[in-house]
Amino acid sequence: MLRFRRMRSLQKFVSVHTHVRNHFNQERHLYSRFSLNLNLMTALAEWRQLSAA
User: Fold this and answer.
1) What is the per-residue burial (b if ≥16 Cβ within 10 Å, else e) of 13-32?
2) What is the rounded (10 degree) CA torsion for 44, 46, 51, 53?
């Protein structure tokens, strides 16, 4: 938080960061390696599709 000089820029960063983190954050200890990789590849493909639009 010390890097942000204005509260508005901090809020903007956090609002974007939470969506990205929630999209890619996986509970690694709950999945097998194959399932985790499959979920991450699917999330990355979806993210690329959304960012290209």
Assistant:
1) eeeeeeeeeeeeeeeeeeee
2) 150
Say yes or no to pLDDT of 1 above 60. Answer: no
The CA distance from 18 to 35, in Å, is: 23
Distance (Å, rounded) from C-alpha 13 to C-alpha 27? Answer: 23
Tell me the per-residue pLDDT of 24-52, one tens digit each, with 9 for 90 and over. 777 777 888 898 889 889 988 988 888 88
Overall pTM > 0.70: no
24/47 Cα distance (integer angstroms): 9
